[in-house]
Design brief:
The chain is mostly helical and 234 residues long. The chain has helices at residues 10-32, 38-68, 73-95, 103-124, 130-149, 152-158, 163-179, 182-191, 200-230. It is globular and about 50 Å long.
Length: 234
């Protein structure tokens, strides 16, 4: 069945917008890899991978919603299980500019991100109850927040000498703390509000998740690109 977006399908519209924007981000970052200073090329490449993978998965998520009017949970989380660790890797690469960020720190951040996603996924597919999944996922996210504001990651950031890397870390920290907060807000609105058990549940969840993906995946890449093109340090 060929998917056809109807004029009043607000959720489907956000899927199409997100899909097109992810493709646009990917094309932009791809060409910028060759223009930014060499030391930033890997980070911009990761941004390109993140939005490219997201675009590919959104082509499936978009069609599932338009045709079936159901939440594409499996595709959503398979996308996040790849792209979120890549974003954490990008965060870690900026921290390595301090020369003191350890591999153990990277593994802790990476593991916390995977746990955050895993608990959210099993809760959304009803393997685990919604409240427990939400609590455990939030604890993993809170650990990441603690690490980047008060923990070892924050200590490493203070020792970064490159001003562009410092700027990148500061903005990426805002994305992880403020931007990522959109996801639990969407989860709560979808599953803990008066829409619980109604068709509106899927509407709220998908619109908020789509907006969050655009902000967070696109913002991470734009931050890296913007500091890269202004980095004048050797």
């Amino acid at each position: 069945m060929t998917p056809a977006l109807t004029p009043h399908d607000l959720v489907g519209t956000t899927f199409y917008i997100a899909c097109n924007m992810m493709l646009a981000f990917t094309g932009f970052f791809f060409f910028q890899v060759w223009l930014v200073p060499k030391k930033w090329a890997t980070s911009v490449s990761i941004s390109c991978l993140v939005t490219g993978i997201a675009w590919y998965n959104y082509t499936f998520m978009r069609d599932i919603w338009v045709v079936q009017q159901t939440t594409p949970t499996t595709y959503r989380y398979t996308d996040w299980l790849i792209t979120v660790p890549l974003l954490i890797l990008e965060f870690f690469l900026v921290l390595r500019a301090s020369g003191e960020a350890t591999n153990a720190l990277g593994f802790r951040l990476f593991g916390a991100a995977l746990l955050m996603l895993a608990f959210g996924w099993v809760a959304e597919i009803d393997v685990l109850d919604k409240v427990s999944g939400f609590i455990f996922a939030m604890l993993a996210w809170i650990y990441i927040i603690f690490e980047i504001f008060l923990g070892e990651a924050a200590s490493c950031a203070e020792k970064i000498k490159n001003e562009s890397a410092k700027t990148a870390f500061a903005w990426m920290r805002i994305v992880v703390s403020v931007g990522w907060a959109i996801y639990p807000l969407g989860y709560m609105e979808g599953y803990f509000s008066n829409a619980m058990g109604s068709a509106k549940e899927q509407v709220y969840v998908n619109i908020i998740y789509n907006i969050a993906d655009l902000i967070n995946k696109g913002a991470f890449g734009v931050i890296i690109w913007s500091v890269a093109v202004t980095d004048t340090e050797a």
